[in-house]
Design goal:
The complex is a heterodimer.
Chain A (H helix, E strand, L loop, with lengths): L2 E4 L3 E5 L4 E3 L1 E4 L4 E8 L5 E7 L5 E3 L5 E5 L4 E6 L8 E11 L2 E8 L3 E6 L1
Chain B lengths: L4 E3 L2 E4 L5 E6 L6 E7 L6 E7 L2 E4 L8 E4 L6 E5 L8 E8 L7 E2 L3 E5 L1
Parallel strand pairs in B: 2-11
Antiparallel strand pairs in B: 1-3, 3-8, 4-5, 4-9, 5-6, 7-8, 9-10, 9-11
The chains are: A mainly beta, B mainly beta.
């Protein structure tokens, strides 16, 4: 079985400050990792994903995440946030074998990022 | 490319009533998912379709929930009868086979009174 833990339920930050949203996962097999963003009253939008290759993954809107296999982490970072980044962020994991995912996409509880002026 | 469409966007019903949600996935996406997202939690998978066949419905409360995907395109999720704890956002997602990326619709917010 796989699971995802987002270590912070809420992260307040001032505009133009850096931010890190933390995500740890557990799984007995290899995994793909994802970060999604959800704006109020909208569905989830993919920010970035790690499937293989470089452990530093760059996504949309200036976000990036680093896959750390030894620490089973996939933290999301942005060097300078904007008011428009205020949203809820979800880390997710899915198992894979032979280059194809299988099983359920398992989500963390979410982290609400609030950017203050 | 049009995204995943869902309707209605909002629904308010009394407990014990029935409700149905509709989803139209992105054209060409063989896999379709229904998720339940309770306030303050991440989405939880209810059912996964591959074309018009069910791949995983292990977390679908089958005594009250049902879903179908006729002709492998549109899908309908039904709740009958609804309970208070069914209040949630119901998200539909679709995925092109083996691309490992799910695209989500805007969701249907259900309130059961």
């Amino acid at each position: 079985a796989q699971s995802v833990t987002q270590l912070d339920s809420q992260v307040p930050v001032f505009e133009e400050a850096p931010v890190e949203l933390r995500c740890n996962y557990s799984s007995s097999v290899s995994v793909y990792l994802f970060w999604y963003v959800q704006y109020p009253n909208q569905g989830l939008q993919l920010l970035l994903k790690y499937l293989s290759g470089s452990t530093l993954v760059k996504g949309i809107n200036g976000f990036e995440a680093e896959f750390n296999k030894s620490q089973t982490s996939f933290h999301l970072r942005k060097p300078s946030v904007h008011i428009s980044d205020t949203a809820e962020y979800f880390c997710a994991v899915i198992s894979f074998a032979g280059g194809t995912s299988y099983g359920k996409l398992t989500f963390g509880q979410g982290t609400i990022l609030t950017v203050h002026p | 490319e049009a995204g995943v469409a869902q309707s209605p966007r909002y629904k308010i019903i009394e407990k014990r009533q029935s409700v149905a949600f509709w989803c139209n996935p992105i054209s060409g996406h063989a896999t379709l998912y229904w998720y339940q997202q309770i306030l303050g939690q991440g989405p939880k998978l209810l059912i996964q379709f591959q074309n018009n066949g069910v791949v995983d419905d292990s977390q679908l409360p089958k005594d009250r929930f049902s879903a179908e995907r006729l002709k492998g395109v549109d899908s309908t999720l039904k709740i009958q009868p609804a309970k208070l704890e069914d209040s949630a956002v119901y998200l539909c997602a679709s995925e092109r086979q083996k691309y490992n990326e799910q695209f989500f619709g805007p969701g249907t917010r259900l309130t059961v009174l």
